[in-house]
């Protein structure tokens, strides 16, 4: 069996593998929301309730991807259900690429400023790297088009605005507390790059 088999449509869309991927992502999503537990509680105590949806960035990206797999496993006949699925899939790709790269970058930035490395950091690097990779691997099996991608782009940019306007961005390593402006600028640029990468991946997928 060649290595290319593991990147093939035959393997990646195998129902047994899709269910394995679904449950891995579902469990990771639950763990991600638990990881954000303290920040969610802090936000509920200090901020308006409506802002809570913008707090858990990575788990929500993982949730989008987890749900997206259901549209591959069970292709709906309803046009509107399909369209909802396409928006979720577009959100999955843009946000998984964005927050996958963001988390890894922030960890390395924290280390570069003197933050001590912990085993949890390596776990986060592995899991967030997987988020970005799986999103780009599966974009060719998703059915979304340009309108859904535009909605996903606007949502992700809105999330950046909410995060850095109301200070509900993910908690940073203490060594980066004095560099929030730089983190904000990096985050917005990364969002734009993630949208571009998602568009290029989608374009390539529709050509193949």
Automatic annotation (TrEMBL):
Record InterPro entries: DUF1405 (IPR009845)
Tell me where on the tree of life, at the top rank, the source sits: Bacteria
Q: Mind telling me which Pfam families this protein's record contains?
A: DUF1405
The question of whether Membrane is a record keyword is answered with yes
Q: Which UniProt keywords apply?
A: Membrane, Transmembrane, Transmembrane helix
The UniProt transmembrane annotation reads 16-36, 48-74, 86-110, 146-162, 182-202
State the protein's name: Membrane protein YpjA
Query: Species name for this entry?
Result: Paenibacillus tundrae
